[in-house]
Amino acid sequence: MVVRREKKVRRQRGSRTYGWGTVGQHRKAGMRGGFGNAGLHKHKWSWTVKYGKDHFGKYGFVNPTSRIKRWINVGSLVSLIKGKELEKDEKGRIIIDLNKMGYDKLLGSGKIDIPILVKVKQASEIAKEKIISKGGEVIIG
After folding, report:
1. What's the total number of domains in the chain?
2. Which domain holds residue 133?
3. Looking at CB atoms within 10 Å, which of 7, 63, 129, 137 has the fewest?
């Protein structure tokens, strides 16, 4: 291979376009090899997998004041207390504090056979009726 005596750039010093013509001057999109986000699904895929995992997909807006309420049915209370040593009140009813367990509301689906005392933020009317009919009590708050 023949080595140039002088670099090509030395010969072109002072010229405006360095041999790339008058229109583009070596600055068009095809010369860049995919600047910016071009090619993230094609030839830059390995880079996307490693560094740009969240680039594709939906982002959206999440309302900061919205909160998903956790609820539990009356029929599920028995399985919730099975096998646990829970405290009892003076009447012998098991005390279940759903607020501490992370539940917000008590709903009325299912059956209950034992008298229990339930502390919860909200309860439906049917849930209250079922617990009170078996000798239990619902404390809202």
Report:
1. 2
2. 71-140
3. 63
In angstroms, rounded to a whole number, what is the distance separating the alpha carbons of residues 109 and 124? 10
Q: Are 39 and 48 in contact (CB under 8 A)?
A: no
Widest CA span in the chain = 105
Could you tell me which residues are beta bridge partners of residue 105? Answer: 71, 122
DSSP letter for each residue of 39-102? TTTTTTHHHHHHH-TTSSS------TT--PPPEEEGGGHHHHHTT----B-TTSPEEEEHHHHT
Instruction: Provide the pLDDT for residue 29.
Output: 64
The dihedrals phi and psi of 75, each to the nearest 5 degrees, come to -65, -20
Does residue 83 surpass a pLDDT of 70? yes
Tokens of 117: 């005392």
The tokens describing 9, both together, are 């750039």
**Does position 28 have pLDDT exceeding 80, yes or no?**
no
Q: How far apart are CA 48 and CA 109, in angstroms?
A: 49
Are 93 and 133 contained in the same domain? yes
Length of the chain: 141
Q: Note whether 48 and 55 are within 8 A (CB).
A: yes
